[in-house]
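REVIEWER CHECKLIST
Item 1: Sequence provided? yes
Item 2: Single chain? yes
Item 3: Sequence as submitted:
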Amino acid sequence: MTRKSLPKYVYNDRGYLRFIRRSRGISVMMQEDAGSPEFWDHYNRLLKGKPAPAPVKRNFEALILSYFESDAYAKLKPRTKSDYRRYISHIREIWAEKDPARIETHHIYELHRANADHWRQANYLVQVMVVLMNHARLIGFIKKEHGNPAKGIPLFKQQSDGWEPWPDDVRAEFEALASERARLVYELCIGTGQRIGDVVKMQWAHFSEDGFDFTQGKTDKPLWIPLTDRLQAHLNGLERLDGTVVTDAKGRSVNYRTVAEEMRAIKKKMKHDKAAYYKTHGLRKNATIELYLAGCDDEMVKAVTGHSGVEMLKKYGGPIRQRALATRAQEARNRMDRDKNGT
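Item 4: Structure as written out by the authors:
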């Protein structure tokens, strides 16, 4: 059925049909095929306010429907919901009719290995399976004593140290060619050390002469951070309007995709043969490295960038972090020796 042919109160939702009748506080996923006798039976029950019959089959289709209705899913961030839906759609496609109780660790291991060419996606699939199988335990689809078969799958290791920082020559050429908006995004990324997704959502209301405050989208962590002199000087030359700092020509907010395409277009004009290799997210690594070079310790760096743990800082700071810590350690030894010798 198309939207026009769907009966009253029925809407498309994440590849399923949902019966929504707000006046009665009813919002129910409909698992049946549109137009089937089972669909009309369920629809008529909902119209009369009768509860839907309990699902007969215990399969991934029913499990996924139940998870989408759960509080755990409702509390996820919009970006996380979008990611989960994408990977759950893949699981639904291959295992919709399978009984979750019959899925064992080796099945999930094989699923993981089958996607080895895309290691990030393969790892995310396993993480989503952990969530789904945990929900299966909660609703009685699998017994608690059987444990979660998705846990313990060895994930693929990151194949590099993550996003590469921009070298000085790449930065200089980009600064010379950048459009006004691209340069603003660049300066915000360098000056604040935040993710590009947060940068495009920053609002002028968050900025003052002392610094800026906002809540990170990925971590939900509130931060207040003083501005660098360089970023303050760049912002002083801009007109401050209501709404976001990064806008289109009419002062409207722009999304990540629009900014990313503009940044890529500028790098295509650059003479540096590896310009396209350096991603906008790498500027967050530049900011982290600059903090370490300035003598900041892990806690000081985390206070600016909002990184949640030292392990991620190791990836971002890399050799710079090790060098700074080693220098401080050896200086401490030198001071100790000088004190001993009275020099």
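Item 5: Key structural point noted by reviewer: Residues 12 and 18 are 6 Å apart (CA to CA).
Item 6: Recommendation: ____
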